[in-house]
Design brief:
mainly alpha, 3 helices, 119 residues, 0% strand, single chain
Length: 119
């Protein structure tokens, strides 16, 4: 029985992946998603995933805005608590801008790639 070294196994795996990739590229087949045909390309899938993330994050952002408002109300003039409320509000707004900005950017990139590839 032959002793297989890790190098031999790694080369076999590499060439197997390379041959499968070349066959897949030669067929020029679009990515088929069994769940939804709308997400048949990777940019469209990323844009859809980020849209879902934004839809899930919107109620959470609203909740944290309410909590931040609660911190402002309960500060009652205390500078320490007021500073905590301002910092919390700042972080909520920055998080909301990051999530919504990522969704908008991904949507723009997906639209641009779709126009360039003609799909």
């Amino acid at each position: 029985m032959r002793n297989h070294t890790p190098r031999t196994i790694a080369l076999t795996i590499f060439f197997s992946i390379l041959s499968f990739a070349s066959v897949a590229l030669a067929q020029d087949v679009a990515l088929k998603n069994p769940l939804n045909s709308q997400f048949s390309s990777i940019p469209a899938f990323i844009a859809g995933a980020l849209k879902a993330l934004a839809m899930i994050a919107l109620p959470i952002i609203t909740l944290f805005l309410v909590i931040s408002g609660f911190y402002f109300i309960t500060a009652q003039g205390s500078q320490d608590k007021l500073q905590k409320a301002k910092l919390n509000f700042f972080y909520v707004i920055i998080g909301a801008l990051l999530i919504l900005g990522a969704w908008i950017l991904a949507t723009l990139i997906a639209g641009t790639v779709s126009q360039l590839t003609g799909r």
